[in-house]
Automatic annotation (TrEMBL):
The chain crosses the membrane at residues 6-25, 32-51, 63-82, 89-111, 145-167, 205-228. This is LrgB family protein. It comes from Halobacillus trueperi. InterPro entries: CidB/LrgB. Pfam families: LrgB.
Length: 229
């Protein structure tokens, strides 16, 4: 009964925190006020303040986590809406995502080697640009650490959301195709959710890029790791 009450409280608290973060984002519309960033930071601060462990939080958090699958499936609705346009854009999306996947893997490998990280950490960094389940699977099969891979995925997602506007302004890129490919191939589901909030077409392109990137990184990561290691 105690576990049930704790889980219910955590679920309600998480929803309230997210709604509060969403209100702040709608009020100020700054990239650093993105709900995923504000809510994550708030939850971490609360856990530290009250001395609660991750396992305790996941009594309720796991039920929210179970909804990730249906949430990803729901991203298919905008794909259907823009299906004709996306078919015409398929080749540029494929090329852009392929380049993004290659750069994502090689940059992680080369920079982590340059920094002197151990092979264990390098194998955990390599799949940082794909969704958590795929990244954890790649890390496990290559000799990395699954929880560490999940941390790097989160860093890549939030980091991509933060620097995306700067990169877009610097490159003078305004087309939703380019913005969506960049977000989906570099910042996976976190970036895709942000793109979907901004523009359904950009979010649709980001969804395709996210899925393609997961497949491409799964293929590229083992070979490139052997080549550069």
């Amino acid at each position: 009964m105690s576990s049930l009450l704790s889980a219910s409280f955590i679920i309600i608290l998480t929803i309230l925190i997210y709604q509060g973060a969403l209100f702040i984002y709608c009020r100020f519309r700054r990239i650093y006020t993105a709900p995923i960033i504000l809510s994550t930071v708030t939850i971490i601060i609360l856990l530290l303040l009250f001395g609660l462990s991750y396992d305790t939080y996941m009594l309720g958090g796991k039920w929210i986590d179970y909804l990730l699958g249906p949430a990803v499936v729901a991203l298919a609705f905008p794909l259907y809406q823009y299906r004709d346009l996306l078919k015409r854009m398929l080749l540029p999306i494929l090329v852009g995502t392929s380049v993004g996947a290659f750069i994502g893997v090689t940059s992680g490998l080369l920079l982590s080697k340059w920094a002197g990280f151990s092979e264990l950490i390098i194998h955990s960094i390599v799949p940082k640009s794909v969704t958590t389940p795929v990244a954890m699977s790649i890390a496990e099969s290559s000799g990395g650490v699954m929880p560490l891979a999940a941390v790097f995925v989160m860093i890549a997602g939030i980091g991509g959301v933060l620097i995306h506007p700067v990169v877009m302004r610097f490159s003078r890129l305004t087309h939703p195709l380019g913005k969506g490919v960049g977000m989906g191939s570099a910042s996976h589901a976190i970036g895709t959710a942000t793109s979907m909030e901004r523009d359904p077409l950009e979010g649709s392109v980001s969804t395709i890029a996210m899925v393609l990137s997961a497949v491409l990184v799964s293929i590229l990561a083992p070979g490139l790791t052997i080549l550069f290691m």
